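Researcher: Here's the sequence for the chain we discussed earlier.
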Amino acid sequence: MTDTQEQSLAAGEFGPNIWLIDEMYRKFLDAPGSVSEAWRDFFSDYRPMGEAVAPPVPAESAPAPVEPVPIPAAPPEPASVAPTAREEAVPPPPAEPPSVPAATPTPMIGVSAKIAERMGESLAIPTATSVRTMPAKLLEVNRLILNNQLQRLTQGGKVSFTHLIGYAVVRALVEMPELNVAYTEVDGKPHLLRHPHIALGLAVDVVRKDGSRSLLVPNIKRCEELDFQQFWLAYEELIHRVRGNRITPEDFVGTTVSLTNPGTLGTVQSVPRLMPDQGVIIGVGAITFPPEYQGADETFIARQGIGRIVTLTSTYDHRVIQGAQSG
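Model: Thanks. This is the structure I predict for it:
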């Protein structure tokens, strides 16, 4: 090996890869023939840090004995010197962080367990989703007119956007009954199930006494037979029974299509899970200005004629509903 090759293989040149030299050196000590000739030449006079001389090389791989290298005398230890002010100012090493206890699994029971079970079942449904963003101006105007009229009546009350959108979904299903269907199997063979009536499921977020949240989806049955006032009354009665914990199992049976409105929480667009025995679920986003105008001045928005929008999604069972029908 030339002097240039020896310099290129100097241990200091390996930097953070010094571990490689140590590993190869151990292999060399155990079996000199297990490393290449270049490594054997390198280790013939290699001295690891802390060793005075190179370790003896087995006779079969060493061409000649290596003369020991004299070690210079160690310099005398300096007298103890008082620490400087800078040294005294060095803070002590930080204490070890406290150990974090491992997370403890909590069994899911009751409604939570049932929701988890149903969500697992929903994975077997091959769904697709249609998305449409629509102007909400007419929706806002109609709601304002209705609420102004209700304030003049003794019975009072208030119409929400969800009331209007829910009723619109019902009327759309009356015009397009091919969406009020479900997939089923008879004797292991696929069948299309056409529902004779519309039972609109309403996703309701319920806060329990312990602060946990649960999702309930009771339904309004035969809602295609109701006018808007009857639909509004049935909707309010159902929500009052949910909030008052007076809901019954019958309120959950037979849902054909569901409506969920995460837009009340600010969600702009949602693709909810479709449950078995249903063909479609409608998701409603927030009624708001387009994102690029949400921070604009109100006067500018009015002068430009910019209105609020709402994004609707239709997530459907692709085995019985096709994209054109959903769109």
